[in-house]
Records
---
Amino acid sequence: MADRKILLIGTAAAVGVLAGGALFLTQQRAGDPYAQCTGSAVAGGMDSFGTEFTLTRDDGQRVTSAEVFNQPTLLYFGYTFCPDVCPLDSARNAEVAAIMEDRGETLQTVFVTVDPRRDTPEVLADYTDMFSDDMIGLTGSEQEIAAVNQGWRNYYKANDEDDQEYYLVDHMTNTYLVMPGGHTVDYFPRDALPGDMADSVGCFLDAT
């Protein structure tokens, strides 16, 4: 009988701890307007992504991060000489923006190069225009591009040891959702589908 009482007390205590933990998590998430939309869990949270910057837009103008992120944005890091991944991802991101436009929502797309040596503003303009008239291309100095990539934890490496002209660049392929003011709220892997991305973006826009 004593053992039964101990078991019941232990079970009740465990339930209490679980209930308390659930309440604590609910209270913690209650202050987050995007809690129901976030699909990504990363160390440090999404607030750890991003940085202020000044880069060169594909029309040759110098722009700040505040000027770029003046509306909801899909942000992607790639390069124009990329043979396969970057064109596919850029086309998908442009499709997501088109879906949102059909739904009456505004979503811009931004392409930041990881290959500033070859990706001049003119090269970026020709490249982004293949996917959307509204896609923004950004480049800068080697140091500026390195700082921006570091801000979004984006790994990249040019394989140019043997060829300084036709080299490839290793890089990550996440697409980030950045809200006005430069607040990164989520990211999408390269296998994310346009419709699913649009639904997720819509959730964030509705919660804003």
Note: The radius of gyration is 22 Å.
---
Amino acid sequence: MRKLIIAMGGSLMIAAPFASADVLGVAANISYWDSDLSGEAGKKGDLVDLENELDLDSDSTANLSAYFEHPVPVLPNVRLNYTRIEQSGSGELSTQFDLLNGPVDSELELSQFDVTLYYEVLDNWVNLDLGLTARDLDGELTVQEATLGGEVSRTEVNGVIPMGYLAARFDLPLTGVSLGGEANLISFDGDSVYDYTAYGQYELSLLQLRAGYRQMGIDYEDSDDRLDIELGGPFVSAGLTF
């Protein structure tokens, strides 16, 4: 992990002198993500299928993001992103999971807060950003037997994960329309996390509208607990740029 962070940091220092924002820029947006979940959770070697056994379904997904760009070439720009996912369901275990059997009620809560430091490598009708993201990941799966006084199992994963950051956007001149994508990813020692977004964007004065598709995967082990999940689906967002 340390070698990966050093390599990414070196790449950022090389990229830093090439481009910077011409003026100060601030933006913030809120989005709705209609995501489907698949994958499994592990507890002390036991596995449970989140989709087929627990029948988890999306209750709410919140995503907030903001960035600050400046014309100082040596200092990185800053991007913040917060995502919270809540899913619940009622299902039935096909095998024993952490001493639980039969019908169960389940709830998955997943939150992540990203701090990204990045440089603008290109800044014209083709935009390219490179950077590093520190992701504070906090996930908990609660499974309870659907009987009075039933057993309860909690699977928890927590950690701050360093990730590479890449963003590209292609502007169609004089239209306010652009196409773009963003990616955060890392893979190390059996764990992997990725987060991809592809979108179309329209800007009118200070208003920024986006629609696209987001795919996120987490394969992360924390002591005896493990989450190996994927979420994907369309999203729409609205924001303001200054």
Note: The first helix runs from residue 2 to 15.
---
Amino acid sequence: MKRKKGNADRLTAGAWWSRNRWSCVILAAALVLFIVVRMAAVTFEQPQPRGDEYAEYETGVVTDILSDNTEADTVADGGYRGEQLLLAQVRSGQYKGETMQVYNYVGPLYGQPLKVGQRAVLLISTYRDGSHTATVYEYDRAVGLAVTVGLFLLATVAVGGKVGAKSLVALAVTLVCLFWILIPLLMKGASTLLTVFLVCAYITVVTMVILGGVCRKTVCAALGTVAGTALALLFGLLSQSLLRIDGLRLTDVEPLLQLRQTGTPLGLRGLLVAGVVISALGAVMDVAMSISSALTEVHTVAPDRDGRALFRSGMNIGRDMVGTMTNTLILAFLGSGLSFIIYLYSLGLDPRQLISSPYMATEVISGIASSIGVILAVPLTALITSFILVKDKKPKAPCGSKPEDKKLPKEVQ
């Protein structure tokens, strides 16, 4: 019996490898590529020694309130103003365990009153003579962030099961690529648009393989996503040229301009369209996978449909998605700038003044170019999927299905 069980285990492992070998090969190649690019993206420098005077950010806990003159300001919608003198015990760094007097400066736009027992991030300044002082930098949000992220992970796995867990892995890959590959490459002077597009294509391939393995459905979805993202990039460049505006007119580009003046060869002009491509990637990927998955199911049930019929089915499915997805993208961009929109509305600007403002131009490019990527991903994915599926008249089980699911229902047969 033990021998039979061992043979069954080996057969199961062999079957798993047979179904997933290409996924493993592609993910292994992607990992090697990631390591190579990461090594090229980062310039290893020796850590610079600290000078005679330096500042550190450490955690601390409020143990006592010595004075407090903070009060709510009705003009600032109940925001607090004033300052506190606190006793705080340092919980990290070279001064761990020491109790210090710290000032907490509070205003409507920064800081908040603290209570005994609350944690805060302390800015500790050390001087040449060895003395040191501390002020409250901000409320310590590490625990709150951990709880929020934990609830998100729990909900994703609880509702999505294995697919939800895979989506979290794909999300982690996306974040690592953005922060460990894209930004370091841009900081070293790599071409902004080309680098962003290649990183997005890499994220697309790895994400699709993680979620669905290597099969026709994921191949079609990946190709549709890359094509839709490329068109969003091209339309963004066209809109940028027509409106005569680029990344130099972004509202938060001034610190980056100062960074260039210190010698960092960061390309600023392409940042506007680069942001469009990154923001559109998730929506385009969603649309492409939905259409590819739906057409694969249609082909599995009705393998006699020709490519034209499959394309029409994909377009019918995609039209229902375009309206809501486009609305989602536009509202996302408007929602991110809601406070500034309210400010502009309060000024009572002339329509011509508003239309010609850089803010309006950048928002139009961001919202519409992203939507164009989603809209054009529909026919592109439908065309690619129908072309690939009609080559094989024999229906195959969708990705991730069990062998016994390959049989069609009797009424279809």
Note: Confidence is low (pLDDT under 50) at residues 402-413.
---
Amino acid sequence: MTEPVTAQAANFLPGPVLLLGAPGVGKGTQAKALMAAYGIPQISTGDILRSNISNGTPLGKAAKTLVDQGTLVSDDLVNEMVADRLKQPDTARGFILDGFPRTLNQATWLDAQLSDDPNTLPVVAISISVDYEQLLHRITGRRISPAGRIYNIYSNPPRTPGICDVDGSTLVQRPDDSEAVFTERMKTFQAQTAPVIEHYRNQSRFEEINGDQSVEQVTADIEAALIRLRQYPNS
């Protein structure tokens, strides 16, 4: 097994990190682990959008008009918000991108944006890979108690089907955890994000990690991959 390299985190400059992978592979969990290890922020386009709208910034006002009309916020507007966020001082050592770049157009914009700053490292992409059937089980098998306890009927079932082990409450399946919704999300992923994976794979700034392991082992593999990519970017 690969040993975690968190002990080296204080002296390691992770730079911009993009976590990729299909819905349910565990990107959010791994992003939190990397934030803790390296002291870098997670940059979520959803959070940026909500922050701009709530603060009434010029970008937020433009976005709110589109949202109120039921129109998707354009790539150009999202790019402007990301560019503004990357100017903040907490990104100096690096950052983890969440939900961006989601398309090839956004990826090429990001590369150009980062290359304009000689003090910023290029983004490295790490794709977490899990077998389709395993992902399907992770999503559709999820059951949640009213208190937020999470079970999975395949990998972590309650002792009594449909009942929380702790308080005896009824477990529910969220509407978003249905097979129909998962199938649509996978179609979107294949259409939009799969080309982003190939974009970075072709630039030798990419590694694929087996996500069908313990959370701790996936974290260790990601940290090791980051060090390899920063030390030997063209290997």
Note: Residues 1-7 have pLDDT under 50 and may be disordered.
